Amino acid sequence: MQLRKHKEEITDYRDYLIKKRLSRISFTVFVGSGKGGVGKSLIAATTGLLLSNFGLRAALLDLDMHGPSSSMILNITELPREEKEGLSPPSVDNLKVMSIGLFVKEAPLPLSGEAKREALKELLAITDFGHLDYLIVDLPPGTGDESLAAINLITNNRGVILVSSPSLLSLQVVRRAAIFFKDMKVKIIGLIENMVINERLGETYKLAEELGIPFLGYIPYDMRVAYVSEKIDPAELVKTEFAEALKKALMKAKIID
Amino acid sequence: MHEFTIAQGIVDFLRETYSAKGYRITSFRIALGELSMFDKNLIIGLVRELIKGTELEGAKFTVSIEEATIKCESCNQIHTFKELTKALSNDEKEMIHFIPELISSFARCLSCGSRDLKIITGRGVMVTDIAVKKA
Predict the structure, then answer these.
(1) Which residues of A touch B113 (CB under 8 A)?
(2) Which residues in chain A have Cβ-Cβ distances shorter than 8 Å to B64?
(3) What's the structural domain count of chain B?
């Protein structure tokens, strides 16, 4: 009988934990853009609330390691709770929310590329979301470490909703992001144009056509949600014109019926 | 009870990776990074309990603490964990216990004040020196 020593095989048990946790999640929706300031985090948070209101088991994972904003958008101050199966995230209207922002509050987050990947891996390994119909992942701007790490860790049953503002600059960056997600074999669920003032079939629609991806619709510039500092109640947020338009986009994407 | 999650994760991982593939594990080592601040004796007790009645029962294991060293990327000063965390509150230390990278959110280089801190050793938990026999 041969005795084998796996000395070189320094194993990261977190890979196993992550796999186990992800096996309980039916589908992951990344919300990305490539461009900052297009309302991605608000769309991700509101998507989570809408799904939860539809009776679906949903959670929101904020992966913006430098500017996590989901806890602020959803008015969450509670810390994740330590339980037997891991860290239990706080929730609002049955939507579970996990963000590095919950741990640091207002402290700075000076994380290098490798540190971000490690922190994300740790977060996924220790968080117990339980069984979910949807995990919504709010990606940071750009296609850097957080996006790459998330795509490499969450490998099955996943898709991305791309968000653009009507500006040509935003569209140019979103085009680049779309190519990135296609190359990384992440299904593109569709493209949303956010912060729309005049609804008309414009450049975003053309870009979706050109890329061969579904155009999910327009989300109006809604003054009620434009200034998150005004602390909108999540129950009120889902009743806004913004949320109504997003609901239609999610129906078009067949995420909700 | 973060330790339980870790202990369970390690045991499940070993069972799925080796036992389920027809190997019998005779020994293994768990290295706990100092930054993760796990209770070594608690981990030993939990792993001992969790392997009872499983294919891992009888396997010898050791648990060691890997000392943490943190380098300031601005001035190259190397710090120990104790030096850097001396002035931190228990709440701040607990956040580092969950996510070791958060040390740069709460601590600063003792020489130059920079927050550009890089963990060199003693970050998290590793399972190593796994010795197996074909069952």
Answers:
(1) none
(2) none
(3) 2
How far is A170 from A202, CA to CA, in rounded Å? 13
What one-letter code names the amino acid at A12? D
What's the rounded Cα separation, in Å, for the pair B106 and A148?
Answer: 26
Q: Kindly list the structural domains of chain A, giving each domain's residue range(s) and its CATH number in brackets, ordered by start.
A: 33-252 (3.40.50.300)
Instruction: Output the pTM of the full model.
Output: 0.91
Asked if the C-beta of A119 comes within 8 angstroms of chain B's C-beta atoms, the answer is yes
CATH code at position B12: 3.30.2320.50
β-partners of residue A192 are A163, A217
Chain segment B74-123, per-residue pLDDT in tens: 999 999 999 999 999 999 999 999 999 999 999 999 999 999 999 999 99
Are B78 and B110 in a shared domain?
yes
ipTM rounded to 2 decimals: 0.88
- Cβ separation B118–A2 shorter than 8 A: no
Tell me the per-residue pLDDT of B55-82, one tens digit each, with 9 for 90 and over.
Answer: 999 999 999 999 999 999 999 999 999 9
User: What Rg do the C-alpha atoms of chain A give, in angstroms?
Assistant: 18
